[in-house]
Amino acid sequence: MKQSTQKYSSVVSMVLAFLLMLAAAVPAVAEVKEIRLAKQYGLGYLPLIIMEEQRLIEKHARVAGLGDVKVTWATLGGGSAMNDALLSNSVDYISSGVAPLVVLWDKSKGAVKGVSALISTPNYLNTNKPAVKSIRDFTDRDRIALPAVKVSIQAIILQMAAAKEFGPDNFARLDKLTVTMKHPDAMAALLSGKSEVTGHLTSPPFMFQELDDKRIRTVLNSYDILGGPHTFNVITTTKAFHDNNPKTYAAVFAALEEAIAYINKNKRPAAEIYQKASKTRESLDDLIREISQPSLSYTTTPLNVAKFSNFMYKTGTIKTKPNSWKDLFFSNVHGKQGS
User: Fold this and answer.
1) Residues of CATH 3.40.190.10 domain(s) within the chain?
2) pLDDT tens figures, 189-213
3) Measured between alpha carbons, how far is residue 189 from residues 36, 153, 211, 241, 316 in Å?
């Protein structure tokens, strides 16, 4: 019996050794060789522009031992287009306002999450109509342009403002006035004075450019609605990409952190990069002034994100309420002082 047991143990040991050798011989599942990202228009996406222009993802991918990874960029207009691109697997990463992230997280049951914030900045509702002193003064003849009706962060900000002004049950009161337009097109329409667009809920640099025209005034500041600074833009990916490509995911986040550190330390060079990449007609001095505004902060820390998700749950935009802002983001930012 003893001899039989020893013989059995010997066989088991040989089998285990063979399996270990076989496992070592099988190569690990390869990570992607191409990373596809989409960004939008405006200074809110400056970190991504820096990443593209300085090839920071390629740099950090090589450091991570991933070799030469191909990185492709697309520029899309609005949260709806971004969400569609990610859900159709046309891209691996998208960038958008907070609201589209919350919608995607809800619809995917957590299969889509935020990588990090990109920027905290207010959004302004600007108008060219002298009679409009507050959101109460917009009439059925007016139109308010924003990147995507009902789902963009600007659309949710407008709903939050309406709930505050007209009561919680009337949060959608101004929705019928909203129209979907890319920020550059909406700014052109507002400044022309010949369009049905009399309001534009927008972000840097467009809100600043509009205010350079003496006919334009601000009637709403999103920081007033949220009670302080809030995240404007985030970068997002799927749980599948995160789980299947851990080194690539880490390289992208490292590239983002380097880009944000570069902007915060080198505002003039960062503004020069934006000016060249965006082909804007704004002067370099104006761009530097805009990204140096005290109310604007490039940071990966999510701020007041929970206020958006809580509101969207109360109004029925999403079906599941996140327990915390951390539910909406991957763990790489959980250690930050977010909200």
Assistant:
1) 34-122+230-333, 124-226
2) 999 999 999 999 999 999 999 999 9
3) 32, 20, 14, 39, 32
12-38 pLDDT, tens digit per residue, is 345 444 434 444 443 446 899 999 999
Distance CA 170, CA 161 (A): 10
34-122+230-333 CATH, one of 3.40.190.10, 3.30.70.930, 1.10.132.80, 3.90.550.10? 3.40.190.10
Spatial strand order of the sheet with 34-39 comes to 70-75, 34-39, 93-97, 231-238, 112-120, 297-298
**Is the overall model pTM greater than 0.70, yes or no?**
yes
Structure tokens at 161: 């403002």
Q: Is the peptide bond before 147 cis (omega within 30 degrees of 0)?
A: no
* Nearest in space to 73 (alpha carbons), one of 85, 88, 84, 61: 85
> Which positions ≥6 away from 159 have C-beta within 8 Å?
171, 172, 174, 175, 311, 315
Band (pLDDT 50/70/90 cuts) for residue 278 is very high
Q: Which CATH superfamily is domain 124-226 in?
A: Periplasmic binding protein-like II (3.40.190.10)
Structure tokens that stand for 172 in this block? 């959608």
Helices 56-63, 246-265: crossing angle, 10 deg rounding: 130
Residue 10 has pLDDT above 60, yes or no: no
Tens digit of each residue's pLDDT (9 = 90 or more) over 245-264: 999 999 999 999 999 999 99
Q: Whose CA is closest to 154, among 131, 180, 132, 129?
A: 180
